[in-house]
Structures are given as C-alpha cells and as structure tokens.
Amino acid sequence: MAAEFPELALWRLDVDGVLARSPDEVRERLRDLANRFRGAEAMLMRTRPIPHAYRVFFRHIGLDPDAQRTPVEQRALERLMHGGFRSAGVIEDGLTVAIMETGVPVWALDAANLRGDLEVRESEPGDRLVVADDSGPVAVLFGETVPAHAVSRETRRVALYSIQVAGVSSIHVEEALWLAATIVEDIP
C-alpha cells in the first residue's frame, strides 16, 4: 500500500465518549452549519481542493465517487434532502461537524474492541481495501463498520480515525479530528 499510495495515512485519536443525545449547543451548531451550507455550496464542493482530493483517491482505488459518494458529499446530500443536518447523537454529530467544516472524513469505533494499531490494507490480495487492526478488518475503507467494532451503548472510549490522501494536508486532518474530539468529549 505504501508504495502505491505514498501519501495515504491513517490517523487515530482515542477520546472518552458515550452514546448520548447531543446537547443544545451541538444541535445549534448543526443548525448554523446547515444555514451556511446551501445548494450552491453543494454544487461547488467538488471543485474545492479537499473534496476533490478524495474524489481522485476514490477513482484510484476503483470506487466511482458519483455512485458511492465521498463522506463530505454524502453529508451534503443528506443536508439538502432533509433541509438541515439531523442530530443523531453526540458522536455522530461530532463527525458531521468535523466532516462539513473541513471536508476531511472522520469515523468512530469502540476503542475497547480494537487490538493494536489501525492500518489500511487489502482484506485479501487483490480484494477491497479495509481498515484493520491486529485481529482483522474493522471497517470497509470509506464504507460500513464491522458491527463488533461499532460504537454502542456500552462504549466508553471512542477511537476517532481519519484517512489522509494525496492533496490533503496534515493540518486539515488534525483539525477534523480535533473538532470531532472536542464535541465527543464535551459531554458530562
């Protein structure tokens, strides 16, 4: 993987967090974000450097970004379809804020169920790419999380992770993780 995609990096940040209803401040932040993000912004999104970098990477790994949308484009579409960003709990809302503010995707896993470091690799030689720990796949790259690793009501520590691709600077990935972490950890 490193030879084929030298600028590909997986970032991880573990934080304390539980599944909970988002506080009023987070729901207000989603409303403000939705008010700033309208149809014209969605149309221009593909031309912006960070979303464009993920579209290019999708094509490099054999995904059609017009069929399987990049995470920021998927959230943008949901916003347009629902007239706003619907609150889905503090963890998911933290991910939405991070993705929409930076264009950098962030996901959450139950940190207690992970073994060792996370990495991007093929599930089998020549097969699809996955995010995996020492015990095996935890999520399809840019796809669904393996249910055993998903955040649940028992989760007390959340592993936030992001994928950095060519054309996306480290500062943007750090900001996305920081944004998500500050929302997830801010729950009493």
Order of helices and strands: EHHHHHEEEEEH
What assembly state would you assign to the polypeptide chains in this entry?
single chain
Tally the helices. 6
Percent of residues in β-strands: 15-25%
Strand order of the largest sheet: 1-6-2
Number of strands: 6
Strand count, sense and barrel status of the largest sheet are: 3 strands, antiparallel
- State the shape: globular
Task: Write down the overall mean pLDDT.
Answer: 92
Detail the poorly predicted runs: none
Q: Percent helix among the residues? A: 25-40%
Radius of gyration: 16 Å
- Structure class: alpha+beta
Euclidean distance between termini CA atoms? 40 Å
What does this structure look like?
The strands form two sheets. The protein has a three-stranded antiparallel beta sheet with strand order 1-6-2, covered by helices on one side. The chain has a three-stranded antiparallel beta sheet with strand order 3-4-5, with no helix packed on it. Helix 1 runs parallel beside helix 5 and helix 5 packs antiparallel against helix 6 (170-185). The protein has helices spanning 24-36, 39-45, 49-60, 71-82, 90-102, 170-185; strands at 9-16, 106-110, 119-122, 129-133, 136-140, 157-164. It has 188 residues and is of the alpha+beta class.
